[in-house]
Design brief:
alpha+beta
C-alpha cells in the first residue's frame, strides 16, 4: 500500500498539477497585491476630498499650564511611546505615569496668520472637544485654507450681514456670504476666459506679426513695404481690440475685488479677507451626509477638471491629464508605423544572416536600456542638434529665442517613441512569424505580388500582435518620468498645447504630465502634509488613465483577432 501511495504522488507530480496550483496561487497573490495597492491609493487619496468636521479643542499646555483653544481638522493619529516624545524634544509633554501617548495631526490652516497649516498635539492633554456648527473652512487661491468663524459680510465696504455665534449658523449672514461668493466666482470665470482666450489670442496674433516683421527685415523681399503696411494695419486692428478688452478687464477686476468679509481665528483674532481670494466655503459641522456627498463630488470634479494652484498642492490636475494622454497618442502615432515597418523588413525582406541576427540582438538589448539614457539622447540629439537646426532654417526671425531648440511636446513624444520602439518591433515580428506559410503561398499562387500578399493578407492577420506591442508600449511610456524631465515636461504649464490658435497643436510647447506631477508634489512641495493625499489621488488617476488607454487598445485587438480568427484556422 505504501508503494502504491508513492506511485500516486509521483504520478500526480509528473502530471504537472502542482505547478498549476502554484501558478494559481501566484496569480491570486498578485491580484491581491494589485487590489491592495489600488485600495491604499483610493482610501488615502480620495478621502482627502471628504468635508471632515472641524473640532474646537481646549488644550492644556503641560509646560505653562495655560489653556488655549485649537480649531482644526483631524488628519492623522499615531501612538508613540514616552521615549519617542523625549527623543523628539517634547519631554515637557510627557506625564510621568503614562507610557503611551496618542499624537494627533491637526490641519489648522491660516498660514498667513499663524505661519503653519499643520501641527501635532498630544491628545491626552485635550480638556474638551466640541464641533461648533458655525466653524467654516475656506479654500483660497493663495495661502491655503482658512479655518475660523464668519463675522461680517461687506459689500463694497459696507456691512450687509453679521454673525456672532459659533454654536449655530446665522442663516441670513451665510446666505449673503454664499451669494457674494457665487458672484465673485462668476466674475473670476469671466476674467479667466477674457485673459486666456480673447486677450491670449490677441497676444498670440501680435507675436505672430512681430515675427513676420522680423522675417521681412531679414529676407528683404521686393514688396517689403507692402507687406509691412499690411502687417501694420493688422496690428492696429489688434491693438484696438486689445484696448477695448483691457478696459473690460479693468471693470471686471474692479467688480471682482469689491466685496470682502471678516472672520475670527481660533485665538480670537479678527481678520479681513477679500472675497476674490476664496474658491469654496463650507460649514462641514452643519452639513448632513447627503450635503457632504454633494461637496465631495464638487471637490472631486474640481480635482479632475481644474488647473492646479498653491504650488500644485491644491486645485486640479486637468493639464497633467491632458498632457499625458496627448503625449501618449502622439507617441503611438510616431512609434507604431516605424516599429511595424522595421519588423516587416526584418521578417519578410531581410536575408536571415548574421547581420540580421545582430540587429535583432541589438533591438532586444535596446528594450533594456534605462529610460534616462533615452532622455539624455533626446536632449542632445533632438533638441540641441535637430531642434537648433530647425530654428536656424525655418524660424530665424525668432532667434535667439528658440522655437524647436528647446524641450517640448514633439521631442518628448519622439523620445518615448524611441524608448518603446523595440517592444513594437519584437511583438510585430512574433505576430508575423505565426502567420502560416500556406497563406502566403496561396496568395502568391492566385497571382498576387509579394507586396499585395503582405498588405492584404499578412499585415491584417498580424494586426493583433501589433496591438499587443502598442499596449505594452503605452503601459511603459505613460508612466515614464525620468526622460520627460529632460525633454519637455514642466512643473506648471500656463496653457494647454492644444488650443484655438493656429496651428492649434503646438508641438514646441512644454506640457504637464501626471508622472512628473506626482514626483513634484511628493518630493518638491513646500507643504508636505497638504500634498501627501494629492500624491495618492494622482497616482491612482495615473493608473486609471493607463488602464483606460490599454483597454481601448485591447478592445481593438480583440476585434481584429475575432475578424481574422477564421483565416488562422
Amino acid at each position: 500500500m505504501e508503494k502504491k501511495s508513492k506511485l500516486n504522488v509521483s504520478d500526480w507530480y509528473k502530471s504537472g498539477e502542482p505547478f498549476v496550483w502554484l501558478n494559481a496561487a501566484a496569480v491570486a497573490m498578485s491580484a491581491i497585491a494589485v487590489i491592495g495597492l489600488l485600495a491604499v491609493l483610493a482610501i488615502n487619496g480620495f478621502s482627502h476630498f471628504w468635508p471632515k468636521n472641524i473640532a474646537s479643542i481646549n488644550y492644556l499646555d503641560p509646560r505653562s499650564q495655560a489653556e488655549y483653544r485649537l480649531l482644526g481638522i483631524d488628519v492623522d493619529d499615531v501612538t508613540v511611546s514616552r521615549e519617542q516624545l523625549v527623543s523628539s524634544g517634547m519631554d515637557h509633554l510627557v506625564d510621568n505615569d503614562v507610557e503611551l501617548f496618542n499624537r494627533q495631526l491637526l490641519q489648522m490652516g491660516n498660514r498667513d496668520v499663524t505661519g503653519m497649516d499643520f501641527a501635532w498635539f498630544v491628545e491626552e492633554h485635550y480638556q474638551s472637544v466640541e464641533y461648533p456648527l458655525g466653524a467654516m473652512i475656506l479654500e483660497r487661491r493663495e495661502w491655503g485654507t482658512f479655518i475660523g468663524f464668519l463675522r461680517d459680510v461687506l459689500e463694497d465696504g459696507q456691512v450687509v450681514a453679521s454673525s456672532t455665534g459659533e454654536g449655530e449658523v446665522n442663516s441670513d449672514a451665510w446666505a449673503k456670504f454664499e451669494a457674494l461668493l457665487a458672484r465673485s466666482e462668476s466674475l473670476h470665470r469671466q476674467i479667466i476666459a477674457l485673459e486666456k482666450d480673447e486677450i491670449g489670442s490677441i497676444n498670440y496674433g501680435m507675436e505672430r506679426i512681430r515675427l513676420a516683421e522680423r522675417r521681412i527685415e531679414l529676407e528683404q523681399p521686393a514688396d517689403a513695404a507692402v507687406q509691412l503696411a499690411e502687417l501694420a494695419a493688422e496690428q492696429a486692428e489688434l491693438e484696438g481690440a486689445y484696448q477695448g478688452m483691457q478696459a473690460e478687464l479693468v471693470d471686471l477686476y474692479r467688480a471682482f475685488e469689491r466685496d470682502s468679509f471678516t472672520a475670527e481665528t481660533m485665538d480670537g483674532t479678527v481678520v479681513t479677507l477679500p472675497m476674490a481670494k476664496v474658491v469654496r466655503a463650507v460649514l462641514p459641522n452643519a452639513l448632513s451626509i447627503p450635503q457632504k456627498f454633494v461637496v465631495y463630488g464638487d471637490k472631486l470634479w474640481e480635482f479632475l477638471s481644474d488647473d492646479p494652484r498653491e504650488a500644485n498642492t491644491e486645485g486640479g490636475i486637468f493639464p497633467a491629464i491632458f498632457g499625458t494622454v496627448l503625449m501618449v497618442l502622439l507617441m503611438s502615432v510616431m512609434m507604431t508605423p516605424l516599429g511595424v515597418i522595421a519588423a516587416v523588413y526584418l521578417r519578410e525582406y531581410a536575408s536571415q544572416g548574421p547581420i540580421t541576427r545582430t540587429i535583432r540582438i541589438a533591438v532586444n538589448n535596446l528594450a533594456g536600456v534605462p529610460s534616462i539614457v533615452y532622455g539624455v539622447f533626446g536632449l542632445g540629439f533632438f533638441i540641441y542638434f535637430v531642434g537648433s537646426n530647425i530654428d536656424q532654417a525655418f524660424f530665424p526671425e525668432a532667434l535667439p529665442s528658440p522655437t524647436f531648440g528647446t524641450p517640448g511636446l514633439l521631442w518628448a513624444s519622439l523620445t518615448l517613441a524611441l524608448l518603446t520602439l523595440p517592444v513594437v518591433i519584437v511583438a510585430t515580428e512574433e505576430g508575423l512569424s505565426r502567420i502560416p506559410k500556406a497563406l502566403r503561398e496561396g496568395s502568391l499562387a492566385l497571382g498576387a505580388t509579394k507586396a499585395e500578399t503582405l498588405w492584404r493578407v499578412v499585415l491584417p492577420m498580424s494586426s493583433p500582435a501589433m496591438m499587443t506591442g502598442l499596449i505594452l508600449a503605452v503601459a511603459r511610456a505613460a508612466g515614464e518620468v525620468a526622460p520627460l524631465m529632460l525633454v519637455g515636461v514642466v512643473k506648471l504649464a500656463p496653457s494647454l498645447p492644444l488650443d484655438g490658435n493656429y496651428p492649434y497643436l503646438h508641438l514646441d510647447q512644454k506640457f504637464m504630465h501626471l508622472g512628473f506631477h506626482i514626483y513634484d508634489v511628493g518630493f518638491q512641495s513646500p507643504n508636505v502634509e497638504a500634498a501627501r493625499p494629492l500624491v495618492y489621488a494622482t497616482a491612482l488617476l495615473l493608473v486609471v488613465v493607463i488602464a483606460l488607454l490599454n483597454m481601448a487598445a485591447v478592445s481593438m485587438r480583440n476585434r481584429l483577432r475575432e475578424k481574422y480568427k477564421s483565416l488562422e484556422m
